[in-house]
Structure to design on (292 residues):
């Protein structure tokens, strides 16, 4: 176990906090609000076009912090390893995690490893801490009638990529797995008054918008259908009867902003990495359902 920690995890995640190898990581933060999140990641196959389970784990946790307007700072990583997992496979995952962490400008400062019976699989839990430096209260509860609804790009690529690999379907669809730090911080630094923001993961856009509408006691109007996906994902959906609105993503967000700021927000997104296909897709309206 000592060799595993030193030869794999410390080798790739090396930083001044982790390298102390204590039972907990100690670090300083300014006197401010913190955001904290945790998530677990299971995916089959472990590696896929555009990403892998390690990249997903880092990006998913970083993006969850960003959705509240927090600047991600520190992550922990817990690994559940099945018997038979190749060390080379684990090294690839660790290197991918470090690459994603470097892009997101975060440090992996603590971790844990357990080995269980199995057939060579791996499961990852990551937790993250971010600093809230914005005065905005970004929350799913804050969408207001008249607000514009914006998505950062085309939907369904991650879902279609994973399903294609599992079904043995040959195509060039890649996962959209990505850290959205630059895009979110550019919007905050650009003065966009973001009311609500969510990353569009499991359950897809339809689920996320439903949760925002329910939390805000409002309605949300968008056109439906395949127009939210790129051409290849549209074809994939038509063959299998899928709807991009309910398909998972790993590098897309939806933002709810005042209508008068929507065009500026889209312009900032388009100028950011991973936001080239950003668009306004709908608006928040008065709910027609009684609030209980």
């Amino acid at each position: 176990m000592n060799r595993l920690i030193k030869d794999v995890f410390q080798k790739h995640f090396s930083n001044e906090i982790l390298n102390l190898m204590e039972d907990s990581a100690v670090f300083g933060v300014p006197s401010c609000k913190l955001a904290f999140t945790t998530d677990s990641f299971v995916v089959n196959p472990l590696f896929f076009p555009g990403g892998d389970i390690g990249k997903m784990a880092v990006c998913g946790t970083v993006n969850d912090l960003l959705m509240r307007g927090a600047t991600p700072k520190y992550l922990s990583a817990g690994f559940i390893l099945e018997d038979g997992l190749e060390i080379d496979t684990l090294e690839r995952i660790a290197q991918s995690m470090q690459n994603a962490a470097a892009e997101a400008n975060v440090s992996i400062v603590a971790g844990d490893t357990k080995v269980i019976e199995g057939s060579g699989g791996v499961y990852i839990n990551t937790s993250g801490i971010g600093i809230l430096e914005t005065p905005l209260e970004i929350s799913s509860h804050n969408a207001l009638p008249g607000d514009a609804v914006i998505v950062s790009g085309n939907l369904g690529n991650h879902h279609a990529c994973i399903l294609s690999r599992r079904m043995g379907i040959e195509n060039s669809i890649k996962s959209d797995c990505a850290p959205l730090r630059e895009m979110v911080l550019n919007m905050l630094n650009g003065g966009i008054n973001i009311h609500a923001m969510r990353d569009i993961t499991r359950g897809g856009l339809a689920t996320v918008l439903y949760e925002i509408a329910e939390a805000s006691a409002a309605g949300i109007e968008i056109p439906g259908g395949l127009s939210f996906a790129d051409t290849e994902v549209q074809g994939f959906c038509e063959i299998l009867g899928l709807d991009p609105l309910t398909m998972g993503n790993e590098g897309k967000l939806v933002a709810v902003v005042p209508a008068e700021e929507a065009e500026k927000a889209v312009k900032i997104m388009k100028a950011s990495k991973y936001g080239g296909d950003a668009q306004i897709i709908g608006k928040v309206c008065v709910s027609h359902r009684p609030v209980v």
